[in-house]
Amino acid sequence: MSANSCSMHPIVQQKVSELRKASNTPRQVRELTDSIGRLLMYEATRDLPLVSTKEEQSPVGTYMAQEIQPRMALVPILRSGLSLLSAASDLLPDAEIYHLGLFREESTLQPVEYYNKLPRKCNVQGCIILDPMIATGGTAEAAIEIMQKWGALKIKYVAVCASKQGIDMLTKRFPDVQFYVATIDEGLDSHGVVIPGIGDCGDRLNNTA
């Protein structure tokens, strides 16, 4: 999988197909979202640079230990982005975790920021924004702008499902941001709902539909 394209991995596509089912329980939605997130995070972290640290001892000899060099931040978009946080933090256990609260106003489809606890000064070299759904792209655009204004130099975006309209807009608007998406759907209705999509992630994850 390359950045800015949807995954063609057969396991990812099978899991997306399972996630779409309206009959899924909240537990099934959470488990499938987490599983897809782990596969996407594997791809999103593929190019993180390593540095040699110090000589260590294995059971049969010595070796040079390695660790990921840049300080990274994981940024879940509340509330549905939390469903990808476990997968992301398992791969990057030492990453900073910062939450952004953004929701889409129903009548205008414009993003509204209601929570932001970023430190005054940027203390990381890169960040990975976590949000299962990219519809019109407005929320993702706002989140990326917030992180750029904060000072994050390298930004990646992990999403389960995106509309073609939304991802096309974002890749043109932010050519330096890398997007990792499980599936890109053609349809987007007048209410900004992706079709066939995966439904309202927040409601499905939290059983609040």
TrEMBL record:
Essential cofactor(s): Mg(2+)
Gene3D superfamilies: 3.40.50.2020
Similarity comment text for this entry: Belongs to the UPRTase family.
Entry keyword annotation includes Mitochondrion: no
Entry protein name: uracil phosphoribosyltransferase
All copies of domain Phosphoribosyltransferase, residue ranges: 8-208
E.C. number: 2.4.2.9
Organism: Coemansia spiralis
NADP listed as a keyword: no
Keywords per UniProt: Allosteric enzyme, Glycosyltransferase, GTP-binding, Nucleotide-binding, Transferase
Highest rank taxon of the organism: Eukaryota
EC main group: transferase
UniProt-listed InterPro entries: PRTase-like, PRTase_dom, UPRTase/APRTase
Pfam (any one): UPRTase
Alphabetized GO MF terms: GTP binding; uracil phosphoribosyltransferase activity
